[in-house]
Amino acid sequence: MKLGVFVPSYLLPGQDRQHGEQIRRFAARAEELGFASLFITDHLLTARRFYRVSWTEPLMTLSHVAAVTSRILLGTSVLVLPTRNPVVLAKEIATLQHLSGDRYIYGVGTGWYPPEFEATGGRRAERGRRTDEVLEASMRLLSGAHQSFEGRYYRFTDVTVEPLGHRPLVWVAGGRQLAHEASPDANRMDPRVLQRICRWDGWIARPTSPPDEIALDLAEIDAELRRRGTSRTAKPFTVAHENFCWLTEKARRDEVIAEQQQRMLAVVSEERPWEYIETVYLVGTVDEIQRRIQQRIDVGVEHLFLHTMTADLSQLELFAKHLLEPFKDVEPSRRSSVA
Predict the structure, then answer these.
(1) Which residues neighbour 329 within 8 Å (Cβ) at sequence distance 6 or greater?
(2) How far apart are CA 20 and CA 17, in angstroms?
(3) Structural domains of the chain, ranges and CATH numbers in brackets
(4) Burial of residue 182 (number of CB atoms within 10 Å: 0-12, 13-18, 19+)
(5) Closest Cα to residue 194, out of 205, 183, 209?
(6) What does the alpha-carbon distance between residue 159 and residue 145 come to, in Å, rounded to a whole number?
(7) pTM exceeds 0.85 for this model
(8) How many CA atoms lie within 13 A of 328 on its CB side?
(9) Strand pairing of 238-244 and 73-76?
(10) Shortest CA distance to 73 belongs to which of 235, 207, 202, 210?
């Protein structure tokens, strides 16, 4: 099982001046400790509905991170494709691949925040079709010279984007989540999302998707891959999962939960109650969190990337001690969810 962490790209109050240095130190130390990846969030605008913070632009920040690292994978979880122009995006990704030595994982999704779509000339109702067009067009441009594309929203003729190198792996986000009235999407695997997932190289399960929901989604993914005459092991195909975590070595559970509540609610909002957050995110004592991670591995998660909630290196050290080291030799389930 591979463990990654999120670049602390969120803008916490009062930390503007030291933020760049914090990101550089965090990234370099994550690589030194042996984490498999550094992922990053994408929000064009401050999405106050679920978060108290905003974020730096993801691809620019990953290029910043690439300059202080040499081996660790760099990914987006997830890049909100309907807000992007595919030609500009392909140029940005090609540049990141070139500067990083082909370390980028192109994690993509539709997004959910209406003002972001409206600010970039779209609508929420168009997000699925725009996602497919941006993904298809950008990957054509990253695959070779003299590319043309004719879609409903985007079109170009005989375009070459350089530098041309290795195309990135594409991991598609989506699927079920623990149902809550505040959730922006229905608790289901959308058929169009399923098709998108199975066409590409991997799937990122939602942070709000507990193990039983991940297992249901994987059953549908396995069935669709089998219908296409392939499988997760044959493609190959990576099952990934994003989540939030705060570790403390305190022994008393009430003190642990109080500290985690304080840290998590500095980043996420109270749109959904703490009881919901406690259910879907990795909360509890170290032993509890290890058990919850094992549950995700048992249903097939192969690459887990976690938000540390701050750029504090001591939190990164705790992740290495209690999560990276214990799980580094654990084999995720690769069996098909379909009988």
Answers:
(1) none
(2) 7
(3) 2-327 (3.20.20.30)
(4) exposed
(5) 205
(6) 7
(7) yes
(8) 11
(9) unpaired
(10) 202
